[in-house]
Amino acid sequence: RQVRPLQRLLAASCQVSIRQPVRHCAMLACAGSRSAEMEDTMSDDRWAYDEILVDVGGFFTTTHTFHTPAGTLAALRVSGGMAEGEYQAADGRHVLIRRTGCLSRSYQLIDGDRVRGAAEPRGFFKQGYLIHFDGEELDLVPEGVFRQGWLLVDRSGITLLSIVPRSVFHRGARLVAEQPVEFPLAVFAYYLRTVIQQETAAVAASA
Questions:
Q1: pLDDT tens digits for range 28-38
Q2: The pTM is what?
């Protein structure tokens, strides 16, 4: 498919000609020193495509695989009940998302050995989550009353990421980058959206 302008998909310091094969994307220059084996892979922190497809497998413990045309970025393994999820980054470090307590609805994103993100419900009468990521405040909010998508927006109201269902035949989602977004943050937002989905389904089933 046709790729939209790359300047909004990469970090400002990463300059790429759209005429080049997108899968190369000068990721070595953006990510610093990397081995030769990594030359043809995507950076797990910044993607070079405006869209990622997520496939879901399993029932109690599920695996959420993030795909681009260049290949698989990561496979997020999520425990039953959405208590925690984990994936391994391209450099080998583990990224963990976990609930902060047994009865809590708040979550943390632990990247390697440090906490980079935290999320808590926006309020009793508001849907979504307030997210803190690397010192920045963001909101995960519904796309609209009659839509099933979710938006990650900054404090200025600018949409960074859209998370929309793929179709009635797929359990996963499409992650569409509207602005440059780090991959761990995109995974965190997707995870929280999945938590909301499961909570909504549980309420509907008990009604």
A1: 222 332 333 33
A2: 0.76
